[in-house]
Amino acid sequence: MILFRKFRVLILMVFLVACTMHIMIDLLPKLEKRAAGSSSSAGGGGGCSCAHTPGEEPRSWAKQRSRAAAAAEPGWPNKHSLRLLQDFSNEPNSNLTSHSREKVTERAESGKRVRPLQPDSEKRGLMRDTVSGQKQRAVQGSSSLKALYEQPLYKTDLPHLSEDDTLFNLNSDVRFYPKAAGQQEWHNEGNVEEEEYSPTGEATAESYPNWLRFHIGINRYELYSRHNPVIGALLKDLVSQKITSVAMKSGGTQLKLIMSFQNYGQALFKPMKQTREQETPPDFFYFSDFERHNAEIAAFHLDRILDFRRVPPVAGRLVNMTREIRDVTRDKKLWRTFFVSPANNICFYGECSYYCSTEHALCGKPDQIEGSLAAFLPDLALAKRKTWRNPWRRSYHKRKKAEWEVDPDYCDEVKQTPPYDRGTRLLDIMDMTIFDFLMGNMDRHHYETFEKFGNETFIIHLDNGRGFGKHSHDEMSILVPLTQCCRVKRSTYLRLQLLAKEEFKLSSLMEESLLQDQLTPVLIQPHLEAMDRRLRLVLKVLADCVEKEGFPSVVENDLDGQPSSHHHQAHGGR
User: Fold this and answer.
1) Where is the active site (predicted)?
2) Distance from C-alpha of 339 to C-alpha of 154, rounded to nearest angstrom
3) What is the pLDDT of residue 2?
C-alpha cells in the first residue's frame, strides 16, 4: 500500500514537472521579446513616447492574432505551428543574408574539411567567384555600358515639355498623395541630413521619397529620363526599405504580393519559382509557363539598354518570409497558407489560378526567398491608364490559332485601324515585338498607356515574367508583327546595329548591367548568348524587309527633329 502511494506521488510529480516545462516553453518567446523591447527602449535614449512607426502596427496585429484568434478560428495555425514559425524568426541563421551565410559556411568548411563539395555547391561557388571577379574588373577597367551611353544615339533630346506632356503638375497634382506630399517625414533611416525643406515649411521636390519623384518624372515620351539619379536611388530603396505590410494581388494566374514600405512606397513582389538553370519544359504551353522573378529583373535592364525606358524599375531582393511577409501581413488568406516543410523550411502558397497549392509551395532556405520587386506606377485614381488588346495577341487555346497566325496580310488590316493608322503606335508595337523576341516572351496579350496623353504616347512594358524561359530555342512566331509589317523606327534600327558590334555586344552589356543587382548572377551565360543570336535574327528580318520594300518604306525617321509622315499626321490632327 505504501509503495502504491509512493508511485502515485511520483506520477503526480512527473505530471507537474511536465506542465511547468510546457508553460515555460510557451512564455519563453514572450519574455525574450519583452526583454528585447525593454533593452531597445533603454538603449534608444531620449525616452520618446511618440506615435508608432508604420512597421509596428502590423507586428502588434500578428501578436494579437497568435494569442487570441489562433485558438478561436480553425483557419489560423495552432500554437504549435506558431511556435515553430516564430523559432525561425528568432534563429540567427534566418537573419543572415545569402552572402553572410556563405561566409559562415566557408569558415566551417575550412576548419573541418571533412565532406567534399557537392556539385551544386561547387557550381554556385564558381558562379559567385566569377561574378565577384567581373565586378572588380568593371570597377578597375573601362565600362562598356558607360561607353554605350556616351554614344550620340543615347544623347538625343526630347521635345520641350508642356504641362500637357507631364503626367503630374508638381504644384497641384502631388497634393493628392495624402500619405506622402502632406507629410515631411519620409523615414529615411540614416539619411536625415539629406532631407531639405523650403523656407515656407513646404517640402521641396528633392525631399520627396524616391518613388514619388519617379512618378513626378513620367512624361509623354518616357517613364524616366536616361541619367535620372532618382532611378538608382529607387532601386536601392526597393532592396533596403523596411517592409511594413504585405497582401496578395488580386487577378492574374500566379501568386504575386503587394509590398508596402516604411516611406509609403509600394512594389509588386514575384517570388522565385525556378532556379536559373531550369528551362521551360518543351510540353508546356506559353500560357501555363512559370513566371520568373529573374526575368522581371533582366527585362528592366534590357529595356534600359535598348533605350526604350518603358519598364518600371525592378530590383531583386532576398526576403525573410517570416519577418517580412508572415509577421506583417493582414491578409488572412495568405497567412493561413504558411507551413513548415519536412525539410524544416518555411513555405507558403497563397491563392491564385495556377500553382497555388502545397505541391507548388514557395519554400525558403530556411525562410529566405529570392524575388523581384517592381516599383508601382501612380495610383489609377491619380493617373488613369488605358488597357489595349495587342493586335497580335495569341489565342491562349490548346488547338485554336489567332487570325494573324493564318493570314499573312493581317498587318494591312491593322494599319487601317485606329490608333495604328497614324502616330507612332504601330512603331511602338514593333519596338515591343523586338523586346519580347530578345527575351523569348510569348505572353503579351495586352498593353497599357497613360490616358492623359491620348494616343500620342509610349507603350508601358509591364509583366515580363514569362521571358527568358528557353535559351536553347528561338520562338520566331514572336517576330511575326515585324515580318508582316516591315516597319521600324530609325532610332531602334541604329541601336540594334550598334548592339550587334563586338565592342557593344548585347550580352556583355547585359552582364555588366545585371552586376548591379543584389541577386547577381541574374541570368546564366546561355541566356546572355541567346540574346546575341536573336539580335542577329532581328537584323536579318529587317534586312529582308529593306531588300523587299526599300529603306525609306521600312525605316521611319524619328531622329534629327524630323518627324515621320505618320507622326506629323497625328499632330496635325489634334
Assistant:
1) 443
2) 50
3) 76
